[in-house]
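Suppose a colleague, Dr. K., hands you the sequence of a protein chain of 460 amino acids and asks what its three-dimensional shape might be. Before reaching for any lab equipment, you can write down a predicted structure in token form. Begin with the sequence itself:
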Amino acid sequence: MNAPRLSTARTIDQIAAARFAAADAEAHVAPLLDIAEAEATIFSRVERAEAMEHARRLDALARAGKSAGPLHGVPLAHKDMYDRARQVTGYGAREGAGKRAEVTSTVLARLDAAGQVDMGRLRMSEYAMGPTGHNHHWGIPRNAAKPGAISGGSSSGSGAAVAAGLVRAALGSDTGGSIRLPAACNGVVGFKPTQGRVPMTGVMPLAFSQDTVGPLAATVAEARLVLSVISGPDGIDPACKPATPIRPRAQGLRDGLTVGFAKGTFLDIMSDSMGAALEDVRVRMANAAMVTTDLDLDLLGTLGEAANAMAMSEAAAVHADRIALSPESYGDQVRTRLAQAVAMPGFAYVRARQVQKLARKAMFDRVFSRVDVVVIPTLFDVPPMEAELNIGGGQGIAALINRLVHFTRPINLLGFPAISLPVARTPEGPLSVQIIGPDWSEDLIADVADWLEAAVSPPA
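The predicted structure, expressed as tokens, is then:
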């Protein structure tokens, strides 16, 4: 079913203002819920009764002249890994493998307080493991940007829901690229924050040292707004650190901004089309008086093994008991990866942590001492077709994953913030780049992304 897209002129800001001014959240949420229920490949569960009840409360608040916040009456939906009290969190796992939550996750509670209408739960890769979006139990969400292509993982439903126009934004998670890859595959924006920017309280863990929570959205401005709402310590998650709050709006770019572009073997897997799109970005930036420079970023291409060793060791700790007791409850791809992870020696994890520390120092010494931000591809090309990659737990799974996360996984190991946005829409599918900055530079990379989005967008 082809869902009607919301007008690109209707940003979250405008929707929230309209819902408040007219007290019409209920009227606008109802038809979207009808569409969502028909999108079974994208939604794992539609929370119709809860959404309509919340919309009515928001309408009553608006009639009293009060706004709930910057998301007043805006319909959103989120990856099925965030706890909501008295509901089952499904994790993208087989039927009955989820858990009933006692307390709502911090990020959902913050979005509620800001006025969202939560429409329900979105499909995801099983236990957030898998960059393609394939799910052994539930299939793959429909890609509206390129029919028949993968929707990316593991936040597959989040990317698909935004691309289909069902919601303007949706939460995802990113441990090796799981926000940015679905964003690239579906031609939308994905914002991975600095490690420790957003609390993980009430969020399904995958790998604690690299897990992050962030939004996928129709525009940079909307992704930024949602991230500003969910960020900051909650007094519960000790890994969430205090930092200057993210600005909810862009403020433009300062003069003399320096931008680094990779040269070398790190880009070898990039297609000609992706290379042309990247060069177009560089030319536009140079024409706008930004200082662009070549950088040796081949270090990033060496970090995949360390990132995987850390992530899989931590994932094995999460799943060791369950997979020992009932390995048949996992899909082929996830079971294969976890079986390998359980067998990984402890010294591999220690060495990976040492690599992480040295690589972070090298990036500050060699890269962020010279440039403000870095621009690299998100994916090596347009999103691949689903039929080409549905290999289950076969021998090619490791090579496939390494290729898909080549440009994203190193950034998780380093902990830096990154925002992915489409810069070209070809007949073969969307092409996206990442803008990456040092720790806590979300405002800067969002400002650059906001400028780039406007620069590459066709005139209205």
